[in-house]
Amino acid sequence: MRIIPQGAFGRTALLVAALLFLNLLIFFVVTAFFVVAPNHEILMKQLANQMNTIIIHEQNNVDPKVMDEFKQSTGIEAFAFKEALGKGMRNATHYKSLSNQLARYLGQGTELRIEESNIAYYWILHPQRKDIWIRIPSIHIDYSGLFVYGIYLLIIVLLSISGGWVFARQLHRPLKRLELAAREIGRGDYPGKLKETGARELVAVTKAFNQMAKDVHQLEEDRTLLLAGISHDLRTPITRIRLASEFLGPEDEETKSGIIADTEDMDAIIDQFISYVRDGRDEAEEDIDLNQLIEQIVENNQLHQRDVRADLNSLPNYPVKILAMKRMLSNLVENGFRYGQPPIEIYSGMEHGEIVIRVSDHGKGIPDIDVERLFLPFARGEQARTGRGSGLGLAIVKRIVELHNGVITLRNLDRGGLEATLRFPIFD
Known about the structure:
Largest sheet: 5 strands, antiparallel
Number of domains: 3
Strand content: 15-25%
Strand order of the largest sheet: 1-5-4-3-2
Number of helices: 10
CATH superfamily of the largest domain: Histidine kinase-like ATPase, C-terminal domain
Order of helices and strands: HHEHEHEEEHHHEHEEHEEHEE
CATH class of the largest domain: Alpha Beta
Radius of gyration: 44 Å
Structural class: alpha+beta
């Protein structure tokens, strides 16, 4: 389990929270050492001075009238141990740390207790007079003020975290836009010009990305135009060759058949070029049940006496480009017949929240080394090197699958044959 977030947003938010915690920690340490500690020392010194004054009065038998006036003006009184218990010392709390601080001024054996009633009282035992307790009145501390102080700190923390969250979001949002736009370019789409806002560095990155996206889109259009032009121009001489072959005599029947087969191969190759370039990304999407497309492909093949079998399970509707999806599924079935052996089996169902479609044949399969390579344009397996086609079939299939946010994998089956698995995630 990773504690540190991997995303920029999480890391920025964590950094802000860590800095905030460190600032609060430093604040409390500084307050404790430079505010609270000196105030404690001042208080202990004052209490020690008052205690020494009382002890001097007790030891020198000061006039009782003077003692009464001192008591009325200061509120400080001396009580014998039993009398002190009845005056509230019994409920006073002993503080060892404060007793040790006060002992630095009065000597070992000093004891300090604090009583909280209508007002606060310090009960102090002087080491030179173990027979009496001195009670010194103080002000009552209203702890509700500490609650307000705590609320204040909580508000500061929440505002700081909110500010950090807004800062992280402002940094994360343009990066997220760049990520989504990069994915669109990877699928061959043009995301349009991104808004160039934010920090100077982000604006510079966005400008460079917009220029790159524009160049890639222009390159894609030029390639499409080039291949379309070449395909169009090639069809004219191919048609002339086909027509010329029709004028050959019966004695050249074998040559005529070869020419016709070659022109048909060239037509098929040109069609694959066009299909690869025009993979259906301009087609509008529709929410449909993929089983409907599979059923149409199965029925069409069965009408031509081809052994295609289907095991279809319930599927949710999924947004697809219908013509592109039918072309992709038909290519997989056609590859099964061309390079494998019937029957061709098609399975559909839901697995782990994904739509899964499997197309398999009963042939010999392919070498494991060719599994990934066959998805590359113009890559052909050993069985296809001497046959028809241009090596674009699976490349077209992969482009259409990725156009629908899906993933395709190939594997050899234990029973023999090749299986293509398509997975399309369901987004809520």
